[in-house]
Amino acid sequence: MKFKDLNEQIKQTHSENEFNEMNLNYLTNQLIKITKKLNELPDISIKEGSQSFMNDISIIFIKKSKFNRWKQNAITVAGRNGQGQQLNQLSGPVGIFIDQNKNIFIADRDNHRVIEWKYNAREGQIIAGRNGQGNRVDQLNRPTDVIVDEQNHSIIIADYDNRRVIQWSNLKQQILINNIDSAGLSMDKNGFLYVSDWAKNEVRRWKMGEYNNEGIVVAGGNGKGKKLNQLNYPTFIFVDEDQSVYVSDRDNDRVMKWKKDAKEGIVVAGGNGQGENLNQLSYPTGVTVDDLGQIYVTDYGNDRVMRWCEEKDEGEVVVGGKGQGNQSNQLNSPMGLCFDDEKNLYVADYLNYRIQKFELIL
């Protein structure tokens, strides 16, 4: 009877969409206690099927936890003062990076600078490119992405129109890679640097500190096209724990996943022509992947952020998608995106000249 009651509780809680870890632990502990008591009786033992029942409880919880939701009205955490070059303004934010302290590093493209916006600050501070547009080593020219190398206390920048990747550390600069049409950057757990080259339609990898070579092609490199071994204007990239590379293949309106040492990629989002249906994208830009392998992509042309599960035929809108606009639940040509360690979602709202924070619903 108690098994039946527990089962009904689980079903009811699950259907009410309130299934959480506390409920799971409580119900599981109750089940263990009942199992122990029954096993002490001479004529009763709990067979393997009950373990399967307990596993089912865990599976329900895992499946439920996979589908995080975010508040649809965002908080503006950087910008909010219109387009401009003051320290409380942005002009074309593209790539963003959040460090462990929730400080936001922004490739402020049309201001030719990288700006750091500390947690809860009212304005940012310029940490690279404070000397105007140019090609000197202490200048930037329309930077598109930035990552923080926390181990070496430096930032690495895709200096788009200077065709280079450059490192800044305590106002000192070092060109890491020259003559590359860099758009997006990523770094894996081993410190390898990945750079997308939109002109050559490829992604290359370099070992940290060893840039006096051409690097290794890890995605694309077979000319512009839409075959599985090709890319067409790759922009943002993400590298997971297995060194699989996810590429926003912008002009193919898809996101590609290239496993380590693969000769071709697989389509993990979009790939059904340009459009606004749930199985389509329109100029995908920022891309990131969570711990469960779910792909999040900013859908630039549809003013939304989509979530795709690998091998699914379509994605779902997680934020935006309510028309182009500047309200707190709207986006205007979103670009970069990332999560902080509390799974809050940050989006570079490009033509609203702001960074939006969508808080996780707990």
UniProtKB/TrEMBL annotation:
Q: Which UniProt keywords apply?
A: Repeat
| Name of a matching Pfam family | NHL
Superkingdom is Eukaryota
Name a single GO biological process: proteasome-mediated ubiquitin-dependent protein catabolic process
Task: Tell me the ranges holding the NHL repeats.
Answer: 224-261, 275-305
- Does the record carry Ubl conjugation as a key word? no
MF term (GO), any: ubiquitin protein ligase activity
Entry-linked CDD domains: NHL (cd05819)
Q: Give the matching PROSITE patterns.
A: NHL (PS51125)
Q: Where are the transmembrane segments?
A: none
Query: What's the protein here called?
Result: NHL repeat containing protein
Q: What is the species of this protein?
A: Adineta steineri
